[in-house]
Amino acid sequence: MILSRTSQYAIQALIYIATRPPGEPILNRKVSEYLGVPTAYLAKIMQSLCRGNLLYSYRGRQGGFCLREGGEKTDLMQIITLIEGVGFTENCVLGLKICSDETACPVHAKWKPIKEKIVALLHEQTLERLAIAVQSGRYRICDLPMAMMDEMGQKGI
């Protein structure tokens, strides 16, 4: 259940867009420069986020991307599921084809409660909450994964 680079970039881009005024488009190039992400790679991610109904895409001189109405309420689990697919939380941590309570891998019993806590944490973290943390100056976008890990530690995960 480690996040792919694609998921990390999608989350960072969405948080950055959520810090901007609602309805104000921003160019992919500007987002990629801010995040230090390859522009072409981010463009593909942004198109996926548009197909997943998280972003609007506008063409032309005043074009760019902006969050859809209510997009700030999107939680990280929704974003990760969109990028990684529904199997993200169902796949075996060791990569085995068959792993369940009935046919468990060697770490299944210890990993399952940890995974459930991580999934719960990802559901708690909305773009709005993360954008406010960034705007307050408490975190930079690139600091958020560590901040989430700190929060997990404080909750005893």
Structure described in brief:
The chain has 157 residues and is mostly helical. The chain is built from 7 helices and 2 strands, in the order H-H-H-E-E-H-H-H-H. 52% of the residues lie in helices and 5% in strands.
Overview of the molecule:
There is one protein chain. With 157 residues, the protein is mainly alpha-helical. Helix content is 52%, strand content 5%. It has a single domain, classed as Winged helix-like DNA-binding domain superfamily/Winged helix DNA-binding domain (Arc Repressor Mutant, subunit A). It has a two-stranded antiparallel sheet. Helix 1 packs across helix 3, helix 1 packs across helix 4 and helix 1 packs across helix 6. The longest helix is centred in the last third of the chain and has 17 residues. About 3% of the residues have low confidence.
Itemize the secondary structure elements and their pairings.
Blueprint: H1 5-18, H2 28-35, H3 39-51, E1 55-58, E2 64-67, H4 76-84, H5 108-124, H6 127-135, H7 144-154
Antiparallel strand pairs: 1-2
Helix pairs in contact: 1-3, 1-4, 1-6, 2-3
List the defining traits of the structure above.
single chain; 2 strands; mainly alpha; elongated; 5% strand; 157 residues; Arc Repressor Mutant, subunit A; WH-like_DNA-bd_sf; two-stranded antiparallel ribbon; 7 helices
- Summarize the main sheet: 2 strands, antiparallel
Tell me the quaternary state: single chain
CATH architecture: Orthogonal Bundle
Which percent range describes the beta-strand content? 5-15%
Overall pLDDT, averaged? 86
Radius of gyration: 17 Å
Counting DSSP H or I runs of 4 or more residues, the number of helices is 7
CATH third-tier fold name: Arc Repressor Mutant, subunit A
Please identify which CATH superfamily we are dealing with. Answer: Winged helix-like DNA-binding domain superfamily/Winged helix DNA-binding domain
- How many strands appear in the DSSP assignment? 2
Q: Which structural class should the secondary elements be placed in?
A: mainly alpha
Shape from CA axes? elongated
- The low-confidence parts are 145-149
Distance between the termini: 15 Å
Protein name: BadM/Rrf2 family transcriptional regulator
GO molecular function: DNA-binding transcription factor activity
Organism: Sulfuricella denitrificans (strain DSM 22764 / NBRC 105220 / skB26)
